[in-house]
Amino acid sequence: MKKIIVILSAVILTISCKKEEVKVYTEAEIAQESKKAFDFFEEKFNEELERYPTFQTYLGIKKNNDKWDDSSDEFAEAELEIYKNTLQVLKDSINVDALDVNNKLSYDLFKQQLEDNIDDFKYRKHSYPVNQMFGAQSRRPAFLINMHRIDNVKDAETYIARLNGFKGMFNQLIDNLKSREEMGVMPPKFVFARVIEDSKNILVGAPFDKSNTNSTLAKDFASKVNKLDIDAAKKNKLINAANEALINSVKPAYESLIATLEAQQKVATTDDGAWKLPDGVAYYNNQLKRITTTDYTADEIHEIGLNEVARIHDEMRKIKTAVGFEGDLQEFFKFMKVDKQFYYEDSNQGRAAYMKLATHIIDSMKTRLDELFITKPKADIVVKAVEAFREKSAGKAFYQSPAPDGSRPGTYYANLYDMAAMPTYEMEALAYHEGIPGHHMQRSISQELTEIPTFRKYASYTAYTEGWGLYSEFIPKEMGFYSDPYSDFGRLAMELFRACRLVVDTGIHAKKWTREDGIKYYTDNTPTAQSGIVKMVERHIVMPGQATAYKIGMLKILELREKAKTALGDKFDIRKFHEVVLTNGAIPLNVLESKVDAMIEAEK
């Protein structure tokens, strides 16, 4: 018996040793397999790019400048099959064990994106393709205005082709709206008035009426064509062709959309949360997981929000005391909301003054970037006001990335529709978030990276992206900015707003809060103007989970920075930390943590 036991032990040990043997690859083998993987990622990115003409235009590519994206069910089903096939080929053809570190990360991210796309297909209609935040009714005109360049006659002709394509594009959109209605997926009643108004705004002015003022798209096209170096007759011919397209395609497209929306408006309910959708609870939990790239539950996020609100309130009380205000925090909020010293006048002069100061804030930060960053973007940034046709429903501020070829700078958009919602004490934080060191640094650097595959340059992980934006509001505080206590209050007010988002988003979608409940929470806990509060609550409603990303992402970046500072002590370099955060493209928060851990070990 003892001999048998000894023999069996020897056999088991031999088998175990064989199992533990790991093939060691040579540098040449690793380089070869890594290049194979990199080329595969590029090939698949370019194949997908071929299927999305608007993204081509966004990247400055004019190959399919006369087309719109296909939004039909048939196209979506075909995309699903492509994802499945690509995932299988990826698993079968790439030896993940033979990849270098960078391409191993690319493999993991690419694989995860495919798996998420496949898993989330069941939720692809759990969204509102037309809403007050985005949708073809506003995005397509904005796209033509901001993205479709006209550098020659051919560009003008492709612009006209896109105008003629509105009818077919909107027909697909209307089909999508109706199929969602059959499923029980419809936005709440308040959304319809907003999007119908946006749609009607596009049809105001010539050639739609006898007005002496051109409509939004007619004005844009004529302005661009008139800058071409061609004779007047050719310009007039192009402008006339565009006007015909506006009358014959754009107008009926919008009229059909408006009719569909008006019909749905009559049967829409006032239920606001994602819980009302088919499998709504599971859908919302999935949204939180995708958006935050964490496993936080709705209850956990809600609690984080409550704690952060309390902390920021305490910091605000210190500022209230420092400036000599004698009332309580709510009275201080009211003072900040109504005192005229904090607002530009609601006039062309007031708006011009706001834009001048916003530009100055951006330009001032440009001179200090060497203190924070090793890598800096080549692309420039400009400040613009949101266009009139969409300013009433658009968000407070947002950023548009530059064209990779340098033909279009990055743009920080400020919405000056309601000057009472744009206090001067928030101007610094707003510019730092949307401009520099915020989204412009982040997205421009990502686009300009050369050692990662293209899909990673344009990847979207909201917690990473918006977490950096909110973190970027905080960094200038450490550099001596926000010297005016009221401006520092503005920084805290914006951070407070993001903390409240954790509470309200989970409140609406997981705890069945109403729109009015959300508005009351913001009103009771922030100094934000009522118009801004209403817009935010309505944004929560049509974009479940999205607004939770900001604070969750910021808290993680701060946590990782503190972890690095504690581990490295005097060796900690803020520029090296930011280099790690910004030079891998957008990544999930857990991946970011692994990168910071690697930096800590390397520095040690």
Topology:
Blueprint (H helix, E strand, L loop, with lengths): L1 H19 L6 H24 L2 H6 L14 H21 L7 H19 L16 H11 L6 H12 L1 H18 L5 H14 L13 H10 L6 H36 L12 H13 L5 H25 L6 H10 L9 H19 L14 E5 L2 H4 L5 E4 L9 E5 L12 H8 L4 H10 L5 H4 L4 H17 L6 H26 L4 H11 L4 H13 L6 H20 L5 H9 L6 H15 L1
Parallel strand pairs: 1-3
Antiparallel strand pairs: 2-3
Helix pairs in contact: 2-5, 4-5, 7-11, 8-11, 9-11, 10-11, 13-21, 15-17, 17-20, 17-21, 20-21, 20-24, 21-22, 22-23, 24-26, 25-26
Strand and helix order: HHHHHHHHHHHHHHHEHEEHHHHHHHHHH
Q: Which residues form runs of ≥5 with pLDDT under 50?
A: 14-18
Instruction: Enumerate how many helices there are, as a single number.
Output: 26
Globally, the shape reads globular
Helical/strand content category: mainly alpha
Widest beta sheet: strand line-up: 1-3-2
Quote the average pLDDT.
94
> Portion of residues in helices?
55-70%
Strand content: under 5%
How large is the radius of gyration? 26 Å
Amino- and carboxy-terminal Cα gap: 54 Å
Largest sheet: 3 strands, mixed
